[in-house]
Amino acid sequence: MNEPYNLDSLMAKLGDFGRYQGFQFFLHILSAVTAGLNMLSLATVAAIPDHRCVIPEVDLNPDGSIIFNATFATTEFIPRLESGKINSCLGWNVTTNSTYTCQKWIYDDTYYQTSRAIDWDFVCDRKWMGSVAQSIYMVGVLTGAVVMGTLADKYGRKPVFCISGILQLILGLLDAFTPEYYSFVIVRYIYGIFGSAGAYIPGFVLTMELVGPSKRSMCGIAFQAAFAFGIMLVAGWGSFIKDYQMLQIIYGLHSLVFFAHIWLMDESPRWLWSNGKVKEAVNIVQKALKINGHKGELDVAEYVSKGNAESRTRETEKKGMSDLFKTPNLRIKTINVCLCWFANSLVYYGLSFSTSSMKGNPYLNMFLMGAVELPSYVITVYLMDRLGRRILTAFCMLVGGVCCISAANMATGSTEAISVVMIGKFLIAASFAIIYNYSAELFPTVVRNSAMGLGSMAARCSGSLAPLLLLCDFLDPRLPSVVFAIIAIVSGTWVLFLPETLNKPMPSSIEDGENFGVGDTFFTSLSRRKRNASLETPPAKAFASEQMEPLR
């Protein structure tokens, strides 16, 4: 049988995961570590400790400055709330027997000696400033998801990855030395574009396009585990380094690793082939085969000849994000997937940012919030290729939503509430991880990076809302959790209407993407299984004829 000399036969020679793929995967996954670290860095750099009003009679020097050794210990000068906690925004004037609005604060230094919040007083009527700074970062990630995803489809995965990695370093250091709030917010916005989107999304797509089908689930979930490890690094460094400027410098210096990628990381052979750069694609695969120990030589000339001929006959029009909405099936899938990204991100970051309101050591709480994701990913890898993407995503979102509602009706900060929140984070982390793989498998090659960017954009919209939504707890402490729960449950139900991608070839063209999974929902699959179970001899490979051509 004659060899077809196409992209699939070329990539098949590499195998699913050899030494070459392993090394490239290691380079790609570093972007997930820094993405997680940059995303949550403000939780320590701008942490808001417990605080109270400055008491002039006790805490101030004659010149009006705060006494160096002023303590957080409360006195009769501080009014209390109905719950018995001190009122951190009001002081008590014993002379006039009335309250007054605080102008200066004393901060509890048990866990935080310095932070942006202490320097700029992100408390009381200025509390919004800290939430806006975090939200602006997420808006930057949203911008990066769209812009950098589109650029990666147009100009290649590698250049976007490397440029973003270098800018991460520059912006991370600039973040530490920005002296004024509004300049700081601008830096945070640009930092978000490159710090948690510009390298992360192309890195993920590079891995998905390089490894074989049997390793996609494992590698995709590993990206999420690396992101969680980045969160754990935030907590780890924060517990040792008490000066927030030095802490931010340490966070920023992690991006030094990306300089080596300029020489060590390769472009995606799939992207090169799809964009007419056939010889470059073949040369990379030939190098990879040698590293993997493959014996024998590629017929480079034949691959280049056939590939160039295929490029000339292929549709030359470039595809972009707008093509996701031009046909009905792709449009419905795109909207459904975007809602899933939106819901997962809202709950994930809502729970992550809420660690400051938990009792106990905030560094330990944040570390546990990251650590609880790791067993979630191990279990997810095991179940994804057995149960499928659709049912597992829906289950995790639905039960995660129930956990949020349950926690809302428990005493704030209680052991029971924290345990339920951790279970919710465990489940949402799993569904968030699956949706990355699920999205990459649902959409065709020509718009895959754009689809991932659009999904990530939806996630960052909700991620930017999460810190602001947490501010609504002054209306009712249960309100944020109830909102998280409702959105998770609605989206988890809609996921059941997406097609399953387990053991199915990834679509290549827009036409493939439009035809993929037509009529396949959880309910039709359930009905089909029941119907087949009622037959004595179920038909073998009932849908073999419906499979599309492999990824090109």
Automatic annotation (TrEMBL):
GO terms for molecular function: transmembrane transporter activity. It is found in: Membrane. The keyword Transmembrane helix applies. InterPro entries: MFS_dom, MFS_sugar_transport-like, MFS_trans_sf, Sugar_transporter_CS. The chain crosses the membrane at residues 25-48, 135-152, 189-208, 220-240, 246-264, 334-351, 363-384, 391-411, 417-439, 451-470, 482-499. Keywords: Membrane, Transmembrane, Transmembrane helix. It is a multi-pass membrane protein. Its main location: membrane. Residues 529-552 are annotated as: Disordered. SUPFAM superfamilies: MFS general substrate transporter. One of its GO terms (cellular component) is membrane. Residues 68-503 form the Major facilitator superfamily (MFS) profile domain. PANTHER family: SOLUTE CARRIER FAMILY 22 MEMBER (PTHR24064). This is Major facilitator superfamily (MFS) profile domain-containing protein. It comes from Brassicogethes aeneus (Rape pollen beetle).
